[in-house]
Amino acid sequence: SLLVRFLRQGSACSDDQQLNFQAFTLKANKREIRVPTQLFINGEFVDSDSQRTLEIVNPTNEEVICKVACASATDVDKAVQAAHSAFYGSWRQITPRQRGQLMLNLADLMERNKEELATIESVDSGAVYTLALKTHVGMSIEAWRYFAGWCDKIQGNTIPVNPARPNNVLTFTRKEPIGVCGLITPWNYPLMMLSWKMAACIAAGNTCLIKPAQTCPLTALKFAELTVRAGFPPGVINVLPGKGSDAGQAVADHELVRKLGFTGSTPIGKHIMKSCADSNLKKCSLELGGKSPLIIFADCDMDKAVRHGMSSVFFNKGENCIAAGRLFVEDRIHDEFIRRVLKDLRTMTIGDPLDRSTAHGPQNHKAHFDKLLEFCRRGVDEGAKLVYGGCRVPHLKGYFFTPTVFTNVTDDMFIAQEESFGPIMIISKFNGSDVDSLMQRANRTEYGLASGVFTKDIGKALNFADRIEAGTVFVNLYNKTDVAAPFGGFKQSGYGKDLGQEALNEYLKTKCVTVEY
Ligand code: TAP
User: Fold this and answer.
1) Which one of 410, 451, 473, 476 is least enclosed by Cβ atoms within 10 Å?
2) Torsion of CA 407, 408, 414, 418, to 10 degrees
3) Which atom of ligand 1 is nearest to the CA of 494?
4) How many whole angstroms separate alpha carbon 324 and alpha carbon 217?
5) Residues 8-57: pLDDT tens digits?
6) Which residues contact ligand 1 via a Cβ below 6 A?
7) How many CA within 13 A on the CB side of residue 3?
8) Complex confidence, ipTM
9) In whole angstroms, what is the distance from residue 366 CA to residue 422 CA?
């Protein structure tokens, strides 16, 4: 009926439309927000086939917020069947322009509910509310609007081929959706990771199911509710919180899923790629881990380098895939740089992420928090100098990790090679007269997600951009991503881009048609 309504009126259903679902009421941020707690399959909220649930914990106080249904392989199969039926049924009746309109409706609804979404994100993942509003939710809305604009601009080419004379031929390509897509996302930017992938996937004309990270699926469930209100036909978008080893694996293994979009760690990415091959050779794109180098030359604008250097590591409490995993600071300014970083760290406000003055919130969940403690212990054992942090924030309940700085880090150390995914700055020195060695050191990693350089010398900066093996290069800034700019890694940081026009191609296939006349 929603589809009929959309097709007839060309508009979304109203906010008052009654949807039936079990929900809990989140009371936070001077609001009362109803958040669905069931799986979203075929346009309806339903219990899990197994009746199992996930306990969702608030990282700020370590208390259980609510329980949500935990999808089983059977639930995944139901969602895939629904997405399959929609792909060959209702979704086909919707024209590309109508599809774009649906996406715009959804973006408008997200905008209207942005405080609610940011509050949920903040409580569920520990994201600082102001950042959640601007980045987690703000960039999600932009992604839906940006990709909505592509819907009626997906087109092929006409290609001059050799005809068999005296006949002529016309050869042209069509860009077609792939079919049912499985999306699997991590916990660091729950709604934004969903939106980056799903907006491109839907704009290309596919149907999908998403398995968000088990630790924080709440914004994905609220989002599911909004998709109904926006008028998406049942089955086009399905949301299944669950465990990676179970529901996630079932998505990767399913024979009707034709494409898998994954963001997460490199080891799981490798495992998933094998499952994609073994099941039905489904196409996959992998956005994986990183250990991004940031180079700070002595001729930089020091104020800027300190400010961006801080955010390159501490943005979103370090739970940022493009976070600078290693800073190389030219020896001439090394001590001054550290002095200024420490000065800023001492005044950083740590606390309740919903508090508007907070700059640094709790880590996402306990296992991650414990891993960060272990990471720092290894750094100390290896002989790196811990100059700040490395421990729990004293006197605070919750997974609050003190922003940390290590110096005297050598290239062979574990902390120089492995991603922490937390607020841990790893600093090494370099000699500015030996750029060749510096570039070798910066590239001596199996990751290749992002990189950065600070210098006022444009030649040095462009030379760095030429030689660095990374999918993203920032010059005299950091963390500046945009929905129109392609994003993704080299080497074992994976392949296939999110965002920009290139992301659409990840969710399209090319058909070549040749006609003789
Ligand atoms: P992972 O442990 O790899 O988990 C990512 C997702 O995969 C989760 O939803 C997880 O489910 C699921 N999963 C686990 N095992 C699976 C399996 N056998 N089959 C299918 N799905 C499975 O990563 P994480 O710890 O959530 O996220 C941190 C990592 O993500 C870091 O390495 C970070 O760099 C990377 N990351 C990369 C990017 C980009 S764009 N390159 C962006 C953000 C994060 P569970 O929730 O049950 O674990």
Assistant:
1) 410
2) 40
3) 41
4) 27
5) 444 444 454 568 999 999 999 999 999 999 999 999 999 999 999 999 99
6) 184-188, 211, 213-214, 243-245, 248-249, 252, 263-265, 268, 271-272, 287-290, 321, 419, 421, 449, 489, 493
7) 15
8) 0.95
9) 12
